[in-house]
Task: inverse folding
């Protein structure tokens, strides 16, 4: 794109075209949302809430997993289960339990990084609110910005968050 031609974003809400916005104005709205210091605190609270939800989910899931593991061991291999209970050696119990907990923590951390998990980005919410105000649109729904690249009419360009 040349410097003389500015990108124009087409704004869609729920798949319906509701307006257009210049790229410079859109970037200004993004900067306005990032300048609000209260949003940084709100985002930190949101991340802490997410961590608390994952923490409680983990400590609900581990005892549930341990219960079903012991029940299935008792049903499928009663001799091994009786041996485990009768000897009760700390090394015998601690080693597999430690490895199970480590695997569970690793999996939950890995999955948590891949999934959004309910974390709300307050900066994007504020940007969308400012964009709705700019366009004078009060319709709730998913807000999508589309800009067709001048090089090809087949490849939409997505906005920078």
Result:
């Amino acid at each position: 794109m040349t410097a003389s031609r500015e990108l124009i974003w087409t704004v869609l809400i729920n798949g319906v075209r509701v307006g257009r916005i210049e790229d410079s104005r859109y970037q200004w709205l993004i900067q306005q949302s990032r300048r609000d210091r209260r949003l940084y605190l709100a985002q930190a609270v949101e991340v802490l809430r997410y961590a608390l939800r994952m923490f409680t989910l983990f400590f609900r899931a581990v005892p549930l997993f341990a219960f079903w593991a012991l029940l299935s061991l008792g049903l499928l291999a009663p001799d091994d289960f009786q041996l485990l209970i009768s000897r009760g050696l700390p090394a015998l119990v601690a080693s597999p339990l430690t490895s199970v907990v480590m695997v569970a923590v690793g999996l939950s951390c890995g999955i948590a990084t891949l999934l959004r998990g309910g974390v709300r980005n307050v900066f994007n919410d504020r940007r969308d609110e400012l964009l709705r105000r700019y366009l004078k649109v009060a319709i709730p729904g998913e807000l999508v910005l589309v800009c067709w690249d001048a090089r090809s009419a087949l490849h939409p360009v997505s906005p920078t968050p």
Notes: The two ends are 20 Å apart (CA to CA). The chain has a mean pLDDT of 78.
